[in-house]
Specification:
With 477 residues, the chain is an all-alpha fold. The longest helix has 34 residues. The two termini are 32 Å apart. It is globular, with a radius of gyration of 24 Å. The chain has a domain of 76 residues. Belongs to the NhaD Na(+)/H(+) (TC 2.A.62) antiporter family.
């Protein structure tokens, strides 16, 4: 999630939010004060360290956590000096509530994904694809299409890493195929995540903010398909039809794997119901869904001995020594171990970004940027620019800035900014979490410049998806 971002863009991309407080006092005007300038410098330095994560081996959460603390410490001091600390406190609590809802939602989703991974679901899918004997071009399309279809449920980062593991296994030393296949996976995963609240953090943010309901994301399906298919069709012409030389490995699912998938679908339905029927934040339904998994884990542990005894008797009867050996390595399912395997660096990075942007927003930069982008410009062009900027900067702070600006836009424009922030990150390898993760997973075979070479093709898909949305969903504008 590192970004190459010119310092001159700081004022534009990381503005602030003006929050209502319990009294009639207005926030202090700090945009041209020493506090405002120092806060911008602190955040710029912190984000520069985030961009250098791969080189410094410094986790991206560390600098933004420190920056958030420093910015809010300065704001607390300034507001206390003016006897208006309640305004700063209200803004701080607003940001904390926003983050808490997203944190718990993502934590449950990550726990389910980790549980499915521990039960060997993804390994089984990978083994199936490898063992089918597809040629390179078929694997190019298969991994891309699966990335597009899985990412709306399993998030684009997890999906991209899964498909990348397949590409690396079958690609071997074929660097050209691996590079093109990884580009294809990044584009597909980001496109697939753009039309689902569960596919990307930015779509989740828009959904939880109440600007777009769960069903109202569906008009983005065809534009998302276009953003993937257009570059994929061009890149596939450069993939040979030769077959890779790989051996098939059988993977057996662990007990309860398929039932966990069912529980995850039930959890999603519960979250949607809480939001659509009861008008509660969907995180309440997700936390209830975590209870489903906990009770199922309890069931798996309590019935483990009986299940092992039955399988052992069957293995002895069939004289299956391999099955007996495998049974000896079975471990009970532990929900809290799955929780501990969540992407905590990403979750803490998200906290730092939210609090930093919230602090800068209280200073007053967001109102300035909002006036330029959404009052002086046409909102369509402003939202297209948001997508381009999300390729340079992480789309999370960009989308958070847009949401905190809360411009008065039509449903069509809210869907447009959701689409552009999601698929715009595919323009550069550093434009999305999926791209950054794959550069690490396929180190030296999928690179920034390898992706940059195909940026015009990806940009063609980006432009085509916008035109498709403007044409097909014109009634929403």
């Amino acid at each position: 999630m590192t970004r190459l971002w010119p310092a001159c863009a700081t004022l534009l991309l990381f503005p602030g939010v003006v929050f209502a407080s319990g009294n009639d006092e207005l926030p202090l005007a700090l945009t041209q004060s020493t506090t405002g300038y120092v806060a911008l410098v602190i955040f710029t330095v912190a984000y520069a360290l985030v961009m250098l994560e791969e080189h410094l081996q410094l986790r991206k959460s560390k600098p933004v956590l420190l920056a958030a603390g420093l910015i809010w410490a300065m704001l607390g001091y300034v507001y206390s000096q003016h006897n208006q600390i309640e305004i700063a406190k209200a803004a701080l609590e607003h940001n904390l509530l926003e983050y808490a809802e997203l944190l718990l939602f993502l934590l449950v989703a990550m726990t389910y994904i980790n549980a499915m991974e521990e039960r060997k679901l993804f390994d089984a899918l990978q083994a199936w694809m490898v063992g089918k004997g597809f040629d390179f071009r078929a694997l190019f399309w298969l991994t891309g299409v699966l990335a597009f279809l899985i990412s709306p449920i399993a998030d684009n980062l997890t999906t991209a890493l899964l498909m990348c593991a397949v590409v690396l296994k079958v690609g071997g030393d074929n660097t050209r195929f691996i590079n093109l296949a990884c580009i294809n996976i990044v584009v597909a995963a980001n496109a697939g995540g753009a039309f689902s609240p569960f596919g990307d953090i930015t779509t989740l943010m828009v959904w939880q903010a109440g600007h777009v309901s769960f069903s109202e994301f569906m008009p983005l399906f065809i534009p998302s398909v276009v953003s993937y298919v257009v570059p994929a069709m061009i890149m596939s012409r450069f993939i040979p039809r030769t077959k890779p030389n790989v051996a098939h490995v059988h993977v057996e699912l662990k007990r309860g794997a398929r039932r966990i998938v069912g529980l995850f679908i039930l959890t999603i339905a519960t979250a949607v119901a809480f939001h659509a029927v009861l008008h509660f934040p969907p995180v309440i339904g997700m936390m209830m869904g975590l209870a489903y998994l906990q009770f199922f884990g309890f069931f798996l542990r309590r019935t483990l001995k009986r299940s092992l005894k039955r399988k052992a008797m069957a293995a002895i009867a069939n004289r299956d020594d391999f099955a007996l050996k495998r049974l000896g390595s079975v471990v009970p399912f532990d929900v809290f171990r799955r929780v501990s395997h969540a992407e905590w660096d990403t979750l803490l990075f998200f906290y730092g970004v939210v609090m930093c942007v919230g602090g800068l927003s209280l200073i007053g930069y967001l109102s300035l940027v909002s006036e330029v982008m959404y009052l002086q410009w046409n909102p369509v062009w402003a939202n297209i620019m948001v997508g381009i900027l999300s390729a340079i900067v992480d789309n999370i702070p960009v989308m958070f800035a847009v949401l905190t600006m809360d411009p008065d836009m039509s449903m069509g424009n809210w869907l447009l900014v959701t689409l552009t922030a999601g698929v715009g990150g595919s323009l550069l390898s550093i434009g999305s979490a999926a791209g950054v993760a794959l550069m690490g997973a396929a180190h030296g075979k999928y690179t920034f410049f390898g992706h940059l070479k195909w940026m015009p093709v990806i940009a063609l898909g980006y432009a085509a998806s916008i035109m498709a949305h403007l044409w097909l969903n014109s009634a929403l504008f």
